[in-house]
Amino acid sequence: MVAVPAADCWLHPDVEVRRSPISGRGLFARRPITADTVVSRLGGRLVSTIEVHEILADAAADPVRPYIDTIVVGEDAHLVLPPRHTNGYGNHSCDPNLWWIDAARRHIPAGEEVTNDYGTSTGVESFTMGCSCGSSLCRRVITGNDWRIPGLQLRYGDHWVPLLAMRIRATRRMRATSRPVCAANAEAS
Questions:
Q1: Band of the pLDDT at 180, cuts 50, 70, 90?
Q2: Neighbours of 42 (CB within 10 A)
Q3: Domains identified in the chain, total number
Q4: Tens-place pLDDT, residues 73-100
């Protein structure tokens, strides 16, 4: 069961919205932020997968094209953030300075854009997004299946939304139990 989230979001007072070289507007550190500092807490409302698809379809059909922020929190649960809350200006980077829990992954100097990797919180298989974050680690396309990339699993360790962390652990267990028995072990039995 997924816990009921707070209705609203919180953003560290040393973070502000500015024009971003990544995309549109982004979040930037006004002052240095030390590693492991909580920078953001997300809130909103929980909806099912069917509901999130309806919300996204309605937004795509709307001529104004309202921006919808969501993260996957369970097999059939998605957190929809309040419309255009300041936290929603956080841009993606393939080499982010925030963990998915929105704590600083490393020291963030004043003036640096505060980013996270959308692949650590997106588990909807149909999700794709072009990326031009400018990082040397840029994947060019972010998908709802990025959690399957072994290099990302290594880089981020346990820093995934709980559902994706669970999928990663299950995949590792399946691989471990389905390895072929080596010939030397087979002869010994």
A1: low
A2: 24
A3: 1
A4: 888 999 999 987 898 899 999 999 999 7
Q: Which domain holds residue 156?
A: 10-178
3 inside domain: no
Take residue 120 and report the two structure tokens written for it. 């650590």
- Torsion, Cα of 58, 163, 93, 105 (10° steps): 140
- Counting beta carbons within 10 angstroms of the beta carbon of residue 39, is it exposed (0 to 12), middle (13 to 18) or buried (19 or more)? buried
Evaluate whether residue 186 is within a structural domain: no
165 vs 104: CA distance, rounded Å: 19
End-to-end CA gap in the chain = 44
Global pTM value: 0.84
Q: Are 135 and 95 in contact (CB under 8 A)?
A: yes
Domain of residue 130, CATH code = 2.170.270.10
